[in-house]
Amino acid sequence: MSEFPATARTTPTRLRERAVYDAERVFAVLDEALICHLGVVVDGEPLVLPTIHARVGDVLYLHGSSGSHLARLVAQAERAAAPGSEVDAGLPVCVTVTLVDGLVLARSQFHHSMNYRSVVVRGRASRVTDPAELDLALHAVVEQVLRGRAEGSRPGDAKELAGTSVLRVPIVEASLKQRSGPPSDDPEDVAGPYWAGVLPVATAFAEPQPSPDLTPGIAVPQHVLDAAAAGGRPTGVQ
Amino acid sequence: MSEFPATARTTPTRLRERAVYDAERVFAVLDEALICHLGVVVDGEPLVLPTIHARVGDVLYLHGSSGSHLARLVAQAERAAAPGSEVDAGLPVCVTVTLVDGLVLARSQFHHSMNYRSVVVRGRASRVTDPAELDLALHAVVEQVLRGRAEGSRPGDAKELAGTSVLRVPIVEASLKQRSGPPSDDPEDVAGPYWAGVLPVATAFAEPQPSPDLTPGIAVPQHVLDAAAAGGRPTGVQ
Questions:
Q1: Which domains does chain B have, with CATH numbers?
Q2: Which of A34, A130, B152, B156 keeps 20 to 30 A from B146, CA to CA?
Q3: ipTM rounded to 2 decimals
Q4: What tens digit of pLDDT does each residue of B2-39 get?
């Protein structure tokens, strides 16, 4: 897949020129983000929760607990689906990821904005039940938290895997909206008295803080040192 | 108001000890965040969009365009509301703000997590129509983008105000969920071979980039220099 279809649901009603459907660019934003915001409908009203995610190919995995309200909602939706109607199985979700790149400080208050990259994925979430897929998804989630981390930590045992719920959202309907560059002031403001520009924003990592109960002699591993030295998340982490 | 009620809708089904209803702490998170994620229900399915917000007292203002899909949805909800039934007027929304404070790198993959502060506000959004309230809200939005910016830029004129839609969400039902501190590994993992700790995460500002068309001689103003020198968003910005 190289491009997502521009459906009515993923076409913005304004500023359409900011919308991008190219899969590689959509994936890059999903991969760079530390968290996503997961939207569901509960009793007819919206609920949005921060969630840890990871992408593998064109599937988005969402990390949760098997005891959570959300896991129960998904189980409910799965039961309600007609047998064999795979298209409609799962809970309708909207997964949104936003990277803020800068404060856009225009001369006019009206043109103040943010530089950002935001991906909206609309689809259906179902539970990962296949053990091999669960392993793959959890590996991806740990690597998404920090690249190199899967090798630097203990994999889950059977009991832990049973207590983890991972949701699977095929990335079929997705779009990227973004803004970059300097403020877009009206011509009559450009000669005005106000300063205009962009204050760049980034997600920064600081020095690692070892656990207080860390066994003496265990050094900070290379993957953590690398991330701290880079000072932040590399673009296109996977 | 000093504490929000712990309603069924704002009480997490898991990890309840992470939920906080204290208004000042809820407000501090809303004030520190650069953006929120706004959830609505469209045709029975969830939609989550990044949005610029500002808080004034116990009201949350959401910045948009009067031509947007969202503004039309709100207008629709307002028309559908029974006259006089103020409680039910407006579009059901969920506004979620998340600040990521650290990557929690446990010895076990199962206990990997994030340190974060996340506020969920569930309520009804209506359009701001009173000109004085619109002024107040837009001032707050510009100050939320960057403190000191309202004085450093040109206020909106009548045409610009007409092209701006601000939504009003009274903060009645809100909760803060958070995690901080080191990883919580199981006792049997603590003596294991893996490093554990937290990699702190923050939102960082870099050097301001003046607009290419900036009139020569206009210096970077103090409020921008201050933000850049601070290197990031101060905690509790308002």
A1: 16-202 (2.30.110.10)
A2: A34
A3: 0.90
A4: 677 777 666 665 555 566 778 999 999 999 999 999 99
